[in-house]
Amino acid sequence: MNITHGLRRALQVNAEGLATVFGNRRRTWREIGERVPRLAAGLRSLGANPGDRVAILSLNSDRYLELYLATAWAGAVIVPLNIRWSPLENEDAMRDCRATVLFVDKAFASTGTALAKAIPGLKLIYADDGDVPAGMESYEALLFRSEPIPDAMCGAADLAGIFYTGGTTGRSKGVMLSHGNLMVNALNALGEGLFQSSAIYLHAAPMFHLANGAAMYSLLLSGGSNIMIQGFTPEGVMAAIQSERVTDALLVPTMIQMLVDHPAIGSYDLSSLKHVIYGASPISDAVLGRAMAALPNVEFTQAYGMTELAPIATLLHWKEHIGEGRAKGRHRAAGRATLGCEVRQNP
To answer: Is the C or the N end of the chain the one with fewer CB within 10 Å?
Structure first.
């Protein structure tokens, strides 16, 4: 089992299904299946061989998802950099993981240029539309000049990604996760009923973070659709839900509060939304109550985890938010251990 397994499966069972939507750009799984092997070949041409690190510093986009797949297809290791870090913090991570290639979008082009000056030999790829900055190669040019290569077919024990922790109590650490780590956790989420093949999932949470990655890796296995917006705004989320008939989303409690308290929420058709996963911080009874009232068709699930666990450890399902579960106060808990995880209390 490896990260590219889901793409290979989607090409077999749902090739014409909708894979990604970003702005006006829509691609099927067949189109993704044609682009990923070319992008993987492009990575190889840049010197990114199996086991080498490929970093990305970018807002959300459909190219971000393609890079997750293409890096694995090439046998290389993805390193998603934190868009909230300072340039020096990202330079520290780049030196730590020894990345040789960096993909940037328009928002971080100048940061990429500065990193290339600080790190000799770093190759920059511009993963955005429009004019390509000096000293960089175009993502699309790299893809289309490359002939597709076979899937590296990484093993479960092979390193898939290095995900840097928040560093709230010290210097951020790079968590090394294997294909097996990520795929087992993704399968566990599917086994819990999350992110089914019919899901139309909204990537509103940042794609560099493994909380969003938990959903993304599951969707890569199930073959659901991925709707991307560059970043969270209440209006952007509501517009995407209405236009793309989004069914699933991951939102932290602050995002939920901003969404349900927005004065324009009644102006959008949000009836397609069926499932919201939340986590990263506790949610207050008041915010949860307002969310349930504003989004009556939505079932809420709380997920708790950490990067080192790839990442989900416990789930609090919808049934614990209502009825007897709520009467017993279970909606304030972090849930029970998910499939494949065990929780114990220290003496």
So the answer is: C
Assign 340 a pLDDT band (cuts: 50, 70, 90).
confident
Give the distance from CA 144 to its chain's centroid.
25
Question: Rounded to an integer, what distance in angstroms lies between the CA atom of residue 230 and that of residue 61?
Answer: 6
Strand residue runs (E) in 99-215? 101-104, 123-126, 137-138, 159-164, 174-178, 200-203
Residue 252 contacts residue 287 (beta carbons within 8 Å): no
Q: Which residues of 300-319 are buried (b: 16+ CB within 10 A; e: fewer)?
A: bbbbbbebebbbbbbbbbbe
Stretch (H or E) spanning 238: helix 234-244
Residues with Cβ within 8 Å of 342's Cβ and at least 6 positions away in sequence, in order, are: none
pLDDT digits (tens, 9 = 90+) for 274-284: 999 998 888 88
The encoded tokens of residue 114 equal 């500065």
Considering the entire predicted model, what is its pTM?
0.95
The angle, 0 to 180 degrees and rounded to 10, between the axes of the packed helices 29-45 and 62-74 is 60
3-state DSSP call for residue 287?
Answer: helix
Q: Is 51 helix (H, G, I), strand (E, B) or coil?
A: coil
- 10 Å CB burial of residue 84 (0-12, 13-18, 19+) is exposed
Mean pLDDT of the chain: 95
CB atoms within 10 A of CB 261: 13
Amino acid at 56: I
